[in-house]
Design brief:
This protein is an alpha/beta fold and 258 residues long. It is 45% helix and 16% strand. Helix 3 crosses helix 4. The structure holds coenzyme A.
Amino acid sequence: MEFNTLLFAIENGIATITINRPDKLNALNKDVIDDLSLAIDEVNNNPDIKSAVITGAGPKAFVAGADISEFTTLGISEGAELARKGQSMVFDKIENAAKPIVAAVNGFALGGGCELAMCCHFRLAADNAKFGQPEVNLGLIPGYGGTQRLTALVGKGRAMELCMTSNLINAGEALAMGLVNHVTTPENLMEKTKEILNTINSKAPLALAKVIQCVNKAGSATGFETEITLFGECFATTDMKEGVTAFMEKRKAVFTGQ
Ligand code: COA
């Protein structure tokens, strides 16, 4: 697929989505949001894609935030609409995707960039990455889910401090507080990400989709019940029969996504 603001490539079942505005540190303007929305639809719908990674073009930034230049003319309803549309078109869509989507954070992940990384199913970071929610510097607050997802990932006290101070944290600090799962060198970031996705891609696709659904419900009133229901549904899949049979026969399972 061709996009104005993204590079999109598929290799070995992995879609690599690269936000491609390096001269603006890959800031999320309206066009990027529109393109990302279409790219995630493609990830969900294209049977050649098993999983995806989101990263940023250039050596400096994953995404340095929402495009601040688009904020100058907005009023109350336009501001709310910007947040609502972005959340449903991109951030919630990524979180609830039917296939694993991870963030490879290769530099600044600030504001909407940190929020974009957080809506992915998990995150890897290069050791030059910097994370932060600096919106209060602009008289703003996070609008793409940052107050909610940061709290879920690092706890209330840390989320409060990061959103109140606008302080940036480095990759090691992000690792220590559970914001990212792995830190590696910038040169090794994509290789390490793809190594993990290759492992994931060898698993049963319908089971992976159900894992995403269940983990996303963690902490909600319906979390345990969702797990019970989806666990049951696994027994109707060919892949579950194949997985269990392969174990009994001491061979590697071959999953078809059925
Ligand atoms: N929106 C729009 N443009 C942005 C941007 C953003 N969030 N972040 C960076 N840019 C642009 C800069 O305006 C500059 O454009 P120009 O060359 O046309 O002037 C270009 O990207 C390079 O950024 P610059 O500030 O010169 O790089 P730097 O290395 O000096 O600083 C940052 C890097 C990330 C510290 C700094 O760009 C910054 O603070 N960005 C805003 C972060 C933010 O507040 N994000 C939350 C937004 S809600």
